[in-house]
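Let us begin with a simple case.
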Amino acid sequence: MSARPTIAKARRIVVKAGSSSLTTSEGTIDADRIDALVDVLAARRAAGTEVVFVSSGAIAAGLGPLGLSRRPRDLATQQAAASVGQGRLVARYTSSFARYGLTVGQVLLTADDMMRRSHHRNAQRAIHQLLALGIVPIVNENDTVATDEIRFGDNDRLAALVAHLTRADAVVLLSDVDALYTGDPRRPGARRIDEVHGPEDLAGIQLGGSGRVGTGGMVTKVEAARIAGVPVVLTNAAQAASALAGEPVGTYFHPQGTRRSTRHLWLAHATTGQGRVVLDAGAVEAVVRRGKSLLPAGVTGVEGEFAAGDPVDLCDPAGAVVARGLVNYDAGEIPDLMGRSTRWLARELGPEYEREIIHRDDLVILEGGGPHE
């Protein structure tokens, strides 16, 4: 393995720590682990790098105080645990970073904050201002109010989206394993993967994870690396200092493809389709292959209830999701528009109808239900 100057020289870096890196097996906060990790982050901060810290652990930190032996399955108890644990977690970070004269700022996000454009911009401004003021932002999903229907699901994905939100130069994912392996590292024959250049390096790999007190496994970490758009290192907390120094530890994910705009990343990875619009074959060709806007003439059906401005999934004639976009009409308006040209609609219904169902600037192409790079 070679050194990684892109990590060592990063001007702004997102570091994510999973629950297992921060808590004991009983679900209580491990003060020594947190102090050791803060030592590393503070040192990188003192060297001139802006650090955005994405921290799991709120639910896990609440297990002990609530007398729970394991992560609850029901949403209400998860929310209660997060409510208790988040305060304890941030209090510990506040105390630990204070040893270096650093102040922390808590930023709690939900997927809904990324879905709503105004919330997205507010979160971006807040984090940028914290950094400008010399504060260390500590980001976590707001598990107290998140719902099963609208949530990030894991902080690996959140870290990748925060990297786009903040225009970070690199991401370090700290897990309970030291690298990506071809199989379960606890079993014989599993081979460590030092670098990932693209999907071809992941062929035949069995992705899994221990998930002792967290929600993410290797699948979520690989997905996070794929969408981050910047270099990503996956390793464990014990090797955090080496990873941040650009030393050849863990698994290094090279950036895949060109870095998307924050808007398209938000649309692809932080929104959920509120309904479905079915396209004919010609419209699929125009939207997916030729980068065109979706016009009423190419729509054959509409499913669900949504309002103008909501994200909706676009489906091919077989029902497969091929794209997602921000729709310009309410669901109830579209049936009367289907199969019509915009010129006809403007003449018969008025000039306000001479517009696309979804403009190409508000579209992101998906493949197999996931983002197409």
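The second case is a distinct protein. As before, the sequence precedes its structure tokens.
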Amino acid sequence: MIKANPRLPTQVKLVEVGPRDGLQNESVAIDASTKVELVDRLTDAGLSYIETGSFVSPKWVPQMATSSDVFAQIRRNPKVTYAALTPNLQGLQAAIAAGADEVAIFGAASQSFSQKNINCSIDESLERFHDVVELAKQHDLKIRGYVSCVLGCPYEGDIAPEKVAEVARALFAMGCYEISLGDTIGVGTPHKVQEMLVAVNKYIPMDKLAVHFHDTYGQALANIYTALNMGISVIDSSVAGLGGCPYAKGASGNVATEDVVYLLDGLGIDHGINFDLLLKAGWFISDKLERPAISKVSNAMRAK
């Protein structure tokens, strides 16, 4: 019998980003009722944290224009956190009105990506978030922080681990309870993941960090395994592998939740998710999009 690796966590929390980060880049309009059913199916599957929508300008992200409707219609489970991305005060106020349980803000470790994505420098973006964080605190809302381009940028190439640590440290000091480190264009490899996490861990404990990998070059699961061995126990993933980045040419979807669950099962790590219901949720949204899931596990299981 294979002994469990003592360095691996015994339990992992999956942050499901499919309904927001996954669907926001779809070119075909998806109605609110479809998004509601997806969130409800993910709830039934046992996901404890679901990024349900984003309160950004519909001019820039039209797919998220129905986020208020989605929050109003989902079948809420008190054990589940239904979160929203809120890039500014107006977005936060809309999230509060919609009843979001938690909010997220985002910065980038790349100056060029920050300018292209949110039209301001890294320092300017962080400065803008102070008012957002203060209002969230007044409403007793927890704030999660994202850092984009932690392992590479479509405009600048490699990103220094120290720059990632600097931005993560600023968000953490501002009041974000957890920092999700995102390989936005999916170029990272295990060694780079190690270097980046070591740099960030100088300022932030591992139990306050999460990882968010895209699978552009097929490295996401290897990178997740590396992160698990370093003490990370929170992983962002997207059902059916939905998602990409509109500002990063060639960036494919987030790592698929189905693939991550299969990996965790193989490692004997508890995650609390009903695999059959998760698969069905992925097949549901894939059928709506009229294409196969971007998940090897999902497609293998459906072919049985």
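The chain has twelve helices and eight strands. The mean pLDDT is 93.
Keep these points in mind for the review questions at the end of the chapter.
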